[in-house]
Design a protein that fits this description.
Blueprint: H1 17-26, H2 33-45, E1 49-52, H3 59-70, E2 73-78, H4 85-88, E3 90-92, H5 94-112, H6 118-126, E4 138-140, H7 142-148, E5 153-158, H8 165-177, E6 179-182, E7 186-189, E8 195-200, H9 208-212, E9 215-218, H10 224-234, H11 240-254, H12 264-279, H13 289-295, H14 299-307
Parallel strand pairs: 1-8, 1-9, 2-5, 5-8
Antiparallel strand pairs: 3-4, 6-7
Helix pairs in contact: 1-2, 10-11, 10-12, 11-12, 12-13
């Protein structure tokens, strides 16, 4: 059996990238023209959007804000190692199936009593359709839930690079055809066409088959100006001077070979710490180590920064500089479709 549903779209579409950018800005997501235009194209062309870049630059938040400004429900699939189809697509509700069989037991006994031999009773039973394998007994997981949804949704497949490559194959039918096939039932076609956003922290190269089905955008750390705007929008209680100071510090830290560079959300936390210190008469510039609790999350990074002194100053003795105990961030091997700037400097926590 094949289930085909009529698509309905009753959520607002944006006229152009500028209109989408303004809508995102009203929800405190600061996107530039290029990023907003790519997102707009993905919605108009009904193509999945693959966002790649370092952790903490606003990829997940973009999908959440897109759902908010478009009036669509957000369905999120959080990827992890070991994720399989029973957690991503569907599984059968065996408890309900068993209960259904128990409710039919007496009726089945009456019908089978009419047959004199066991083979006849078995053949009759095998020919019956008890409805056990139908949509009623499907426990829909995020991918199937997005396909079956009667209302338009934004489907977020978060951190797809954390799964095995075999999991990518399960996504292809959804990404390319907007449908899911259940062998026991048939093919479910999207009842409303979902907007699909995939994110990757670029920890491994994704398959060419998956990339071929998506529009691609690399989201890097924002420029200092844009990050000041982001922090100002998310932490309006912090003075402009303190925001600028924290953003400058974060920028200098990102130039070091840290195990984990400060994310935008961590910069926002650091700005709020600076505001609390200012209220007590202390300056964050005089005690930058107090900001490290928000900006640096590994002791090796703290040792690296403190061993070299303030990030803006050269170390007095290079031989005394502790080296990181783990490899620096892996090189970004993602193919950059926007050559020259590649979407860098865009995003928000």
């Amino acid at each position: 059996m094949t289930t085909v549903a009529t698509e309905r779209t009753n959520t607002p579409h944006f006229v152009d990238g500028a209109a989408l950018r303004d809508a995102l800005c009203e929800s405190d997501y600061i996107a530039d023209d290029e990023l907003a235009t790519v997102v707009h194209l993905a919605t108009v062309l009904d193509r999945p959007l693959l966002l790649e870049g370092p952790a903490g630059v606003g990829k997940t938040e973009l999908a959440k804000t897109l759902a908010e400004v478009s009036g669509r429900r957000l369905i999120r699939l959080q990827c992890h190692e070991g994720l399989d189809d029973s957690r991503a697509l569907y599984e059968w509700d065996y408890a309900r199936q068993l209960l259904h069989v128990q409710m039919l037991r007496d009726r089945i006994g009456v019908e089978l009593a009419e047959f004199e031999t066991l083979p006849e009773a078995s053949a009759h039973l095998a020919a019956q359709d008890f409805g056990l394998y139908s949509e009623t007994f499907l426990a829909a997981r995020p991918l199937l839930a997005a396909i079956l949804s009667e209302e338009p949704v934004v489907l977020l497949v978060d951190e797809v690079d954390r799964t095995e490559e075999s999991m990518e194959a399960l996504l292809l039918e959804v990404l390319a055809e907007n449908q899911v096939t259940v062998p026991e039932v048939g093919t479910f076609t999207a009842r409303t066409r979902p907007w699909v956003v995939l994110t990757s922290n670029d920890t491994r190269e994704l398959s060419a088959a998956l990339k071929r089905r998506c529009l691609h955008y690399h989201l890097g750390y924002p420029t200092a100006e844009r990050e000041r705007n982001i922090v100002g929008a998310r932490a309006p209680e912090v003075e402009t001077a303190a925001v600028a100071e924290v953003v400058e510090l974060a920028g200098k830290l990102r130039e070091l070979p840290l195990r984990k560079s400060p994310s935008i959300s961590e910069v926002i936390d650091a700005a709020r710490i600076a505001a609390v210190l200012a209220a007590t008469g202390r300056s964050a510039s005089d005690s930058p180590e107090l900001l490290y609790s928000a900006l640096l999350k590994y002791s090796s990074d703290v040792d690296l920064v403190q061993g070299r002194g303030a990030p803006a100053k050269a170390p007095e003795d290079d031989r005394a500089v502790p080296r990181p105990t783990v490899a620096a961030r892996p090189a970004n091997t993602t193919t950059n479709v926007f050559r020259g700037h590649g979407g860098k400097g865009h995003g928000r926590s």
